[in-house]
Amino acid sequence: MTDQTPGIPRQQQPYPGRTGDMTPAPRDEMADYRGTGLLEGRVALVTGGDSGIGRAVSVAFAKEGADVAIAYLCEDDDAEHTAHLIEAEGRRALLIRGDLGSEEACRTAVSRTVDTLGHLEILVNNVAYQAPRQALEEISSEQWERTFRTNVHSYYWMTREALPHLHAGDAIINTSSINGLRGNRTLIDYATTKGAVNAFTYSMAQALVDRRIRVNAVAPGPVWTPLIPSTMPEERVEGFGEQVPMKEAAHPDDIAPSYVFLASGRLSGFYTGEVLAPVGGETMPG
Asked: CA quadruple 223, 237, 32, 85: dihedral positive or negative?
């Protein structure tokens, strides 16, 4: 990691949150990252690519030579800024607005990517929704369904639509979470979806190994993204991430290199069915 994050003060935003309203500002532009052409000539589609981890991954991919399509919900300012960062690297950026909790929106995201950018080699399923609750009884059926549609159904729909365009050497990367590895008492539905993402990753890796399409996941610990102040009560935002052994939340720039590693056949060509867990020093039994 780079310089230690200043203590995060109390703050709150409407969902899905805006990067520019966060204090401190997240490091999410990969400003000090230097690419070496690992993804030259490839096309990536990143869901939730407008901000947070998705932004950092999109910019890192561009610095490695990829054109990047970004599927996002409604954060136009954040998405346009990410597109500018991609284009500053001499790569093409495509913005695709829509709610990926809809099957049709997922179908459109893949078709627009291929129609506009010509092909598709890397799919990053990264979009996520969470809403903390103190007890299971406080989670409505509507919330449970929304969390699953965003965090699990979209991964299925996006992967299914992308598969006809993927070939040997291509990659699918799913964003999981430490909460999918060890649970979370106030994020029961979210943690359950992230456990499902891990199982989906393992299963698809087995299903696609004969086609030499690699499927892996990244399961971060606490990361300072717009999802945090837009979904958590302000008292939980204060000091966010200080509970891990490293005593701070990661920034998106700290997490994005894991995605570059998994996207690059040169670096991770013998990796499939793996879950990388950048969690700030926390260890888990089992």
From this structure: positive
Nearest to 62 by CA among 227, 272, 260, 213: 260
Predicted confidence (pLDDT) per residue in 135-163, tens digit: 999 999 999 999 999 999 999 999 999 99
Give the residue carrying structure tokens 């879950």.
275
Of the candidates 190, 202, 259, 271, the residue annotated as catalytic is: 190
* Cβ–Cβ under 8 Å, residues 87 and 63: no
Q: In residues, how long is the chain?
A: 286
Say which residue the tokens 């996006």 belong to: 158
Looking from the CA of 15 toward its CB, the CA atoms found within 13 Å total 10
Nearest residue to 195 (alpha-carbon basis) of 222, 174, 223: 174
Hey, what are 61's tokens?
């991919």
Give the rounded distance of the alpha carbon of 5 from its chain centre: 21
The tokens describing 31, both together, are 């400003």
| Annotated catalytic residue 129 | no
| Residue appearing with tokens 């890397």 | 122
Rounded alpha-carbon distances, angstroms, from residue 77 to 2, 74, 194, 277: 26, 9, 28, 30
Asked if pLDDT for residue 4 goes beyond 70, the answer is no
Number of H helices and E strands in the chain, helices first, is 11, 7
d(CA 131, CA 137): 13
Please, what is the end-to-end C-alpha distance for the chain in angstroms? 27
CB 252 within 8 A of CB 194: no
Strand ranges in 144-261 using DSSP code E only, listed in sequence order: 171-175, 214-218
What pTM was estimated for this model as a whole?
Answer: 0.96
DSSP one-letter code for 149: I
**Which tokens go with 69?**
């399509």
Cα 195 to Cα 148, 178, 231, 260, distances in angstroms: 11, 9, 20, 23
